[in-house]
Amino acid sequence: MMILSYIAVMEITESQYRRIEACLPRQRGNVSISNIQVLNAILYVAENGCKWRGLPKHFGNWHTIYTRMNRWAKAGVLDRVFTSLQKEQIIRIKIEAMSIDSTIVKVHPDGTGALKKKDRSRSENRVEDGQPRFIWLPQMLEQP
């Protein structure tokens, strides 16, 4: 007995693609991977958090997809596409929490052992000290 399970993935259909097709550059020449395949591959990587090399084979060559995605990002195409996808309510993007771990940031060797000029003592009043300087929180802007 064989049991099959289906996992729903974020993938755009042909009819949904036609609604946002104007945001993407027109394909010219001998192109082996269509724009909808590239867009679905980008959505797959974004949804699953996998490496580009881990992209399933049915999407096509991972390097071709990555190269096209990189060009689109630099040209502002991806911004237009994702704005259009949200306006057409094809996908919804919601960021609930974000965590940045400073242990992965490499520091230049000159910046690791500098001596402090003087220690700054914390006052009894937290309002005078202000917010801690080591925490960075991203600001999310709402788009119309």
Provide an overview of this structure.
The chain has 144 residues and is mainly alpha-helical. It has a domain at 14-87. It has five helices and no strands. The protein has helices spanning 14-20, 35-48, 62-75, 77-87, 126-129. The longest helix has 14 residues, at 35-48. It is elongated and about 65 Å long. The chain starts with 13 loop residues before the first helix and ends in a 15-residue tail after the last helix.
From N to C, what is the helix and strand string?
A: HHHHH
Subunit organisation of the chains: single chain
Show unreliable segments: 1-8
Provide the structure class: mainly alpha
Q: Assess the beta-strand content as a share of residues.
A: under 5%
Largest sheet: none
| Record field, number of beta strands | 0
Q: Report helical residue fraction.
A: 25-40%
What is the terminal-to-terminal distance? 51 Å
Overall pLDDT, averaged? 75
Give the topology, please.
Layout: H1 14-20, H2 35-48, H3 62-75, H4 77-87, H5 126-129
Keywords summarizing the entry:
mainly alpha; disordered N terminus; 144 residues; elongated; 35% helix
Q: In a few lines, what is going on in this structure?
A:
It is built from 5 helices and no strands. With 144 residues, it is mostly helical.
